[in-house]
Amino acid sequence: MEIRHGTAVSPGIAIGPAVVLDTEGVHIPHRTAPPDQLDSEVARLHRALDEVAAGLRADRDRMTARFGREFGNIFAAQEQAIEAIRKHTESRVRTDRYTAEYAVSRVLRDYVKRLEDVAVLQQGAAVEARRRASDLIGIERQVLAALLGNPTDPFANLPEPVVVLANDLMPSDTADFSPRTVRAFATESGGPTSHTAILAGALDIPAVVGVGRFLTDVSGGDTVIVDGTEGVIIIDPDEATLVRYEAKRAELLARPDRYEALRDKPAVTDDGVPIRLLGNIELAQEAAHCLDRGAEGVGLYRTEFLYLNKAAHPTEEEHYAAYCAVLSTLGPNRPLVIRTLDLGADKFASASGALVNEKNPFLGLRSVRLCLDRTELFRTQLRAILRAAVHGDLRIMFPMISTVTELRHCKALLRAVTEDLEDAGIPFKRAVPVGTMIEVPSAALIADVLAREVNFFSLGTNDLVQYTLAADRNNEHVANLYNPVDPAVLRLIVGVVRAAKGANIEANVCGEMSGEPLYVPLLVGLGIRQLSATPRKIPEIKRVIRALTVAEAERVAAHALSLDTGRQVTNYLRDYLRKLLPSEAVD
Ligand code: PEP
Ligand code: MG
């Protein structure tokens, strides 16, 4: 049994067989074989090892002929490794009743683990140990490919829903997960505001990210527990642990939602100031979750998810249908803020792949930069938005704006699309409110200029934090730097709120920060009157708002602004929340 800790990003407990996705998506469907099949498993194992060894021999001969014996010997060492594991793997099949695949994976991963330990403990031997470990991982892949054929869809023909374990997952991977096939997932890399983490919350799949290296300790088919509430994963649990977690899981499922009673209560501070609570969605069907959780509408629709994993870009009609579906769930009077495409960086449409090959995609052709470069993509979406706006309270918001020129270009394109629709006699709404996200420090610094151009601001703190502190939001190694209440971030927020007030427009927050109860008193105290968060978080935020007075929140904000470090601010806010809600656990 192995217990690992990571960052909890989507609550709940799941228990199930592992599907280990490495970079090539290889997975092992079954861990053990029935006793009467062991001879045939052993025969399969030897056939696969023979096949890989023959391939390596051919490579060795080819390389020796072309470049000399020295190069050929690289393959000779791998051939020897195959012979070295032959006996060991066969004995695991016979004694442990492992399938050939599982025996190969288990034995090789144990070797790799030992080599990695050597690499950590003995600096002098580290380079050689890592090289041998990487050779063994390569051999594991080849033998598994010989046993399983070419890697196919890892989720095809699964006998039961699985727990996905991977080094990292792209949002496009996660977007296809459904609770029917994937019970939970855990990744070695990643941070709490990564899009993959956000999507896990949206799909209601328990998830833990940033666990650090653990994939060598696990093979496909192993039983794994993911506790997405506590941020724990347990590989190969013993019987007592399994029983304990099964009970915990059943208890969680049976527990009445302690915030249920709050759903229909207004989000008003104790001294009577309304704070508008909206939901963030990635998929049209989540609009219903927003209403279930007591949101007053949708404050951020991440429309780029319409593009992920599609063979072709969505048509104008597909955009239109998705927006109309959300509006019909919300009804005519609840707002829907459509954020235009934020493709690029970690979100690529399969129809276009990585649209350009970039060394620094987070600083590259992402979001409106991409839209202004591929205007046909942008026009299609803008036409659909203006047409759908006829059916409800729709607003439009541009992401990743970093200069006022960019914002003006977006608005000019919107005007051009308006004229096209008018000329064609297609019904649409002209007076759609236009906002900009503030998620790049340059935008925050010129907020007074941007404020003259738009009807509202929405602070995208996930990106604002990463770009202000130069700390990748997906990288667990810099998670200590990535702090939404770092004084640098707070000063930018103060400037944005002030600029918005000066221009008489609203500044809202739609990054993950707004869904964190800890930050709510601070944000209200800074003058924020609308928060848009993951629907699941809305009742908790409402609970804080109803306990708070604006005067007190302003005192909290003033004190937070006087502190020197993000850590001091966090500790201060924690103490404050403990006092505000003494009966709640604050961690
Ligand atoms: C943000 O950056 O805070 C935001 C809401 O946008 P996304 O998380 O989709 O980048
Ligand atoms: Mg963003």
Helix content: 40-55%
| Highest-level CATH class of the largest domain | Alpha Beta
Mean pLDDT, to the nearest integer, reads 90
Largest beta-sheet characterization: 8 strands, mixed
Superfamily (CATH H level) name of the largest domain: Phosphoenolpyruvate-binding domains
| Strand line-up of the largest beta sheet | 1-8-7-3-4-5-6-2
Number of domains: 3
Bound molecules: phosphoenolpyruvate, magnesium ion
What assembly state would you assign to the polypeptide chains in this entry? single chain
Radius of gyration: 27 Å
Topology of this protein?
Blueprint: E1 2-5, E2 7-10, E3 13-21, H1 38-67, H2 69-96, H3 100-121, H4 126-148, E4 162-166, H5 171-175, E5 182-187, H6 195-203, E6 207-209, E7 223-227, E8 232-235, H7 239-254, E9 276-281, H8 287-292, E10 298-302, H9 316-330, E11 335-339, H10 368-373, H11 375-388, E12 393-398, H12 404-424, E13 434-438, H13 441-445, H14 447-451, E14 456-459, H15 461-469, H16 487-502, E15 506-509, H17 520-525, E16 530-533, H18 538-547, H19 550-562, H20 566-580
Parallel strand pairs: 3-4, 4-5, 5-6, 9-10, 9-16, 10-11, 11-12, 12-13, 13-14, 14-15
Antiparallel strand pairs: 1-8, 2-6, 3-7, 7-8
Helix pairs in contact: 1-2, 1-4, 2-3, 3-4, 9-11, 11-12
The site of phosphoenolpyruvate has 10 residues, from β10 and α15.
